[in-house]
Amino acid sequence: MEGTKHEKALLVILSYIVGLTSGFIAFGLTQSNQIIETPVVTSSYEVEAHSATPEDLDTQVTPETAGVNVSYDDGRLIVNVNGSVQLLSVERSLLNLEAVSFFTKQGTHSVEPVYQLSPDTNFIYFCEQKTVEDSCQSFVYDIQNEMIHYVTTGGSKLLLPRAQAEQIIWEGSTLTHGQSSSDSPVLPWLLTTK
Fold first, then answer.
1. What is the pLDDT of residues 171-183, one digit of tens each?
2. 8: how many CB neighbours lie within 10 A of its CB?
């Protein structure tokens, strides 16, 4: 098996598990009942030749946005910022049972996440569905600060059916869901009802 494609694939999978496990151990150690800001685990793998194309993205790639791409490939939601790849969420079936236990709050999904890059390319909204139940947890990834934030409205974490998550829209750096929207372009994960 030495030097084979299978060995290389196994090494990539193991590096995912080690990196994600380490990140989520740190996440679990700093967890509180308040809104959690989670650093994103930087994966140490090379993205295969499956980089996102304009057709894969929710927004068109223009000269201003060419450095930021978000895509879903092989069970992974990833963001590529000028060649630096961040793993935001991985399909639960790709992890062993021990690794899944470290991802109880964020980082895994059972159904492809709803995701959307903000027009100014500063944030990514995504919604993780953990089970077959039609309910997903909303998050915003702050690209510049490399932090994941729960989307909250009125102080409560925003859980949505998939159809409603698909209706969330960006207006610049303002996130809007129905009658709720963010008041601050630098804190789009904090929604208030208008």
1. 988 999 988 999 8
2. 10
Domains of the chain: total = 1
- Distances from the Cα of 53 to the Cα of 72, 73, 81, 99, angstroms: 11, 12, 14, 31
148 forms bridges with which residues in the sheet? 38, 141
How far does CA 113 lie from the centroid of its chain?
A: 8
Tens of pLDDT, residues 59-103: 344 444 458 999 999 999 999 999 999 989 998 888 777 666 666
Q: Would you state the structure tokens that stand for residue 72, as one six-digit string?
A: 């879903």
Beta-carbon contacts of 108 under 8 Å, excluding residues fewer than 6 positions away, are 89, 90, 91, 92, 95, 100, 128, 130
Distances (CA, A) of 56 to 4, 8, 71, 159: 30, 27, 6, 25
**Domain membership of residue 111 as a residue range:** 5-193
